[in-house]
Amino acid sequence: MENYKLDRLELRYQEEGANLVMAWLGMSTLPNPTEELMPYFTKRMAEWGGKRLTLDFRGLEYMNSSTVSLIVQLLKKLDEAVAGTTVIYDRTLKWQALSFQALESIESLFKNVKITGK
């Protein structure tokens, strides 16, 4: 799987058998990242179908509130499209802890999504 770069955000992939890790690196500062990234993710989901997907945000330096909205929409789609999704964030970074704890509060709405801070 090829890595993807958009503005100051990079998505780096690593396949580990039936598991796929997508590391989010850099900064997500676009005013409407959903417009740019959701078509990309929708296209990729066919390739991810039978895999377990890990979204690793620990290398992300910053994301705006529009990115949080994108992540919620992405998790909704992934909940049905892949074998399971794990979201990992860095709980020692205050901004990540605040953003992802909000997502943890809606984790129960998903069947196949686990959100955890490390």
What would you say about this model in short?
The protein has 118 residues and is of the alpha/beta class. The protein has helices spanning 33-48, 65-81, 94-104; strands at residues 4-6, 9-16, 19-28, 52-56, 60-63, 84-89, 113-117. β1 and β2 form a beta hairpin.
Describe the structure.
This protein is of the alpha/beta class and 118 residues long. Helix content is 37%, strand content 35%. It is built from three helices and seven strands; from the N terminus they run βββαββαβαβ. Strands 1, 2, 3, 4, 5, 6 and 7 form a seven-stranded mixed β-sheet that branches. Strand 3 (19-28), helix 1 (33-48) and strand 4 (52-56) form a beta-alpha-beta unit. Helix 1 (33-48) packs parallel to helix 2.
